[in-house]
Design brief:
Length: 709
């Protein structure tokens, strides 16, 4: 694992050296089309005509794309690359960890006005099936593509919302479950044919073992299905495990359950080492172990079909219940209706999927342009999606407002103990596990207050909290596709931090990187929570002389002098003062505003300062820095931003006065707890989740592996 991690880091070191555009050649792995851009995942074969020894993956964004790219095409593009990076905040999925699990070493954008050059068209069987489904006039072609060939590129945000609410996303992402369904049907078919052969045609022949005579056909059929699914990691992993099982059956070798589990896990990690960082690995392993545990717990000895069906239903329900804590741990939210929805849709998919696959193969073989089995498959899929949509309308996903790790662990132990046979002190153990869940609802400490600096890229989003209450300062940016940092980062983080009452928002100024999430703030904290929210800005209420009392804190607006609609130099400047410490929040003011502010406010001293204008050289003048004289300074910047914030001269000015400096692009989310005991700083990358792939900045390395030739 260390060597794989070093290979990954070496690629990031290499990418960080690319100052200009590079020429990439490689294969398109997936294409997702947005409103104004296309997202392309590409396996890189060469960089600037130098071939990669082991091909990594990159993600490229193509804005205003002129041609439609497809999977498996071999292309040549000019792109600007940055090392793989993701925002780091509590309550949000770690993009950087996901990029690592997918062997994505860099992200970037295709050079404007430079069209990708198609070197080879897509000849793969998967591409042909995808094109065939696109050519048919099917209402639910996107769902059929997802469940049959693993292509989810065409699913809309509404489709994802339905799957999230019902907890059925795993059914429309080809995984070990689908491979298991195909294997079970193929094995049953071959076993039935062999039994029929023996009873009808060869009554006097010796007994034929289904495991022995169906070994190679099963390996070929399941392997072919893995190819259709583009060799997706969960599918190939399941195929490897099925192959191991079949070989053991063929050789009549007996391994204990523990040996099988350990060897299968080691084999998976040996073949796919980076999968240890993916959610799918733990969910798959967790599901298998849970099934084994349930079989042991129930000690199935059923004979009648009725009892077997009852036990399967019960096992399916309990499997979903035991997987809920793991889902909460990885995704920060759970769907309480998921066990019921899966109880319905897992059997439906298990029976419908072989027919869907048969319909696709038959219609593609005979090249039906209309009619055929796919029309019936489309109708069946339509009924299923309509039913899912109905369930989703009554069962929105539940997002936890607590720290998910201890909650998920306690829930898992509770469910595990409930399923265990009678144990000594079983009830006592369950009650002990309930304590962390109960403490989450106890009153929070109100003797201290906290400044939260969220990692929202090139933008600003802050919160001041005391207990379970908070007020916000700025929202981060919004994007053309409709999402925003408020919805993606700030709201999930506040839930995770158990902050559930927010009714005030200060907007420093109207630039998108500070006020883009205003609409989502009003929608969530106002409309969805049924509260009256206050919004203060330089144009409305936040002008010099205004003061507010919020719990034990005093908030004073010290700039601008008169209401202003927009402009960096008319940012709402706030000074938040507590019993012992104060925080200065200057927005994006520049040097001229700093000079005027110093003239009007003789005392600007504060222990904590959010650097004006993200650390731009047009701000943080020497006289301003000395006047504030902060102990702690925080920059809110994007990773390798094009303005190169914070400016080196600005960093030097704060260094000269002895201030400790933090940067969201380097430290991620930053929390500063202020109390009579002092100021305690906690950062996401250094304290909350200290992982090697979050620590490295891809700037330098004592030794890097040879990557290209």
């Amino acid at each position: 694992m260390a060597s794989v991690g070093h290979w990954y880091t070496s690629w990031q070191q290499e990418v960080s050296k690319f100052k200009d555009d590079v020429i990439l050649t490689g294969d398109v792995l997936s294409v997702t089309n947005g409103p104004s851009f296309a997202k392309i995942v590409m396996k890189v074969k060469s960089v600037n005509d130098r071939s990669a020894i082991i091909s990594p993956n990159v993600i490229l964004y193509w804005y205003h794309s002129a041609i439609q790219l497809r999977r498996h095409q071999h292309i040549k593009v000019s792109a600007k690359l940055k090392p793989a990076y993701g925002l780091a905040n509590p309550g949000s999925a770690l993009k950087q960890q996901w990029l690592l699990s997918q062997a994505v070493v860099a992200t970037g954008s295709i050079t404007a006005n430079a069209q990708p050059e198609l070197l080879l068209p897509s000849f793969s069987f998967h591409a042909n099936l995808s094109a065939f489904l696109d050519s048919r006039t099917l209402t639910n072609a996107r769902w059929l593509k997802a469940i049959l060939i693993g292509n989810r590129d065409d699913l809309s945000s509404d489709d994802w919302g339905i799957m999230q609410a019902t907890g059925t996303a795993h059914l429309f992402s080809i995984s070990g479950l689908h491979m298991g369904i195909i294997f079970a049907w193929c094995y049953t078919l071959f076993a039935g044919l062999i039994a029929l052969w023996q009873k009808v045609l060869l009554r006097a022949s010796p007994h034929y073992s289904a495991s022995k005579w169906s070994l190679f056909p099963l390996l070929i059929l399941t392997g072919s299905y893995a190819i259709i699914a583009t060799g997706a990691l969960p599918v190939v992993r399941a195929w490897v495990l099925i192959s191991l099982y079949l070989i053991l059956q063929y050789k009549r070798v007996h391994w204990s359950t523990q040996d099988k589990a350990l060897i299968m896990m080691c084999l998976c990690l040996f073949v796919f080492p980076l999968s240890v960082y993916s959610a799918s690995f733990y969910l798959s392993v967790g599901a298998v172990i849970t099934i084994w545990f349930l079989l042991w717990s129930f000690k199935a000895r059923t004979r009648t079909i009725k009892n077997k069906i009852s036990q399967l239903i019960l096992m399916q329900f309990m499997l979903c219940m035991m997987m809920l804590p793991m889902t909460m741990l990885w995704f920060g939210q759970i769907s309480w209706i998921a066990p019921i929805a899966n109880l319905v849709f897992v059997p439906l998919i298990s029976f419908a999927m072989p027919f869907f696959l048969l319909a696709l193969m038959v219609d593609n073989l005979f090249k039906f342009d209309q009619g055929g089995l796919l029309v019936l498959a489309d109708d069946v899929m339509r009924w299923m999606i309509e039913f899912m949509t109905l369930i989703a309308s009554f069962a929105p996903a539940f997002s936890t407002s607590m720290n998910t790790t201890p909650v998920a662990l306690c829930l898992f132990i509770i469910v595990f103990l409930c399923l265990c046979p009678p144990l000594a002190y079983k009830r006592v153990l369950i009650l002990l596990c309930l304590i962390p869940l109960i403490t989450a609802f106890l009153p929070a400490d109100t003797n201290s207050w906290k400044l939260h600096i969220f990692d929202v890229g090139q933008g600003t989003a802050l919160a001041i909290s005391q207990g379970h209450e908070a007020l916000l300062i700025d929202t981060g940016a919004a994007f053309k596709e409709g999402s925003s940092m408020m919805r993606q980062v700030v709201i999930p983080a506040l839930r995770s931090l158990n902050v559930n009452k927010v009714d005030t928002l200060f907007i420093s100024h109207s630039d998108n990187d500070h006020a883009g999430g205003l609409a989502d703030f009003i929608q969530y904290f106002g409309a969805e929570q049924g509260r009256d929210v206050s919004i203060l800005s330089p144009a409305s209420g936040c002008v010099a002389g205004e003061q507010w009392r919020w719990n034990a804190l005093r908030i004073a607006a010290i700039w601008p002098r008169t209401p202003a609609a927009s402009g960096n130099n008319f940012s709402c400047v706030l000074k938040v003062s507590g019993p012992e410490y104060s925080v200065l929040l200057p927005g994006d003011i520049e040097s001229s505003a700093e000079y005027e502010l110093l003239y009007q406010q003789p005392d600007l001293s504060a222990e904590i300062l959010i650097a004006p204008h993200h650390g731009s050289n047009t701000s943080s003048t020497g006289i301003f820095v000395n006047a504030v004289s902060p102990q702690l300074v925080a920059y809110t910047t994007g990773f390798k931003n094009r303005w190169q914030f914070p400016a080196e001269k600005v960093v030097d000015r704060y260094y000269e006065i002895g201030a400790t400096q933090f940067n969201t692009s380097e430290h991620g989310y930053i929390q500063m707890r202020l109390s009579e005991d002092g100021i305690r700083v906690t950062t996401f990358r250094d304290d909350i989740k200290k992982r090697w792939y979050l620590q490295q900045t891809a700037e330098s390395s004592t030794f890097s592996l040879p990557l290209m030739y």
